[in-house]
Amino acid sequence: MSEIAVFITTSNEDEAAKIAKELVDARLAACVNIVKNIRSIYLWQGKIEDDSEVLMIAKTQKALFDALSKKVKELHSYSTPEIIALPIVDGSEEYIKWLRESTG
Question: What is the domain count for the chain?
């Protein structure tokens, strides 16, 4: 399978919604879920940070990752946004068909 789920974190729901709409409109993602109120603890510039963030989960095809990543970086407020892809190893035939038809 060539489908992937891309995790992207943002600082707030408005930013996530703006990016999600752009990705879907450009057909770089078939669907983007927005999960509010996650807590992220991470090392940044030598300090441990503890922040509230919003998680986006974009479903797309691996061939579109570079274009999706570029679009996210254009729109994102972070200098180094989290943009990581995980393979979708299986899924319902109908959903995967829809994902493919909705992207590209």
Answer: 1
Question: Distance (Å, rounded) from C-alpha 84 to C-alpha 34?
Answer: 15
pLDDT tens by residue, 4-32 = 999 999 999 999 999 999 999 999 999 99
| pTM of this structure | 0.94
- Whole-number Å distance between alpha carbons of 87 and 59: 10
> What CATH code is carried by the domain that includes residue 57?
3.30.70.120
SS (HEC) of 11-75: CCHHHHHHHHHHHHHCCCCCEEEEEEEEEEEEEECCEEEEEEEEEEEEEEEHHHHHHHHHHHHHH
Confidence grade of residue 104 (pLDDT, cut at 50, 70, 90): confident
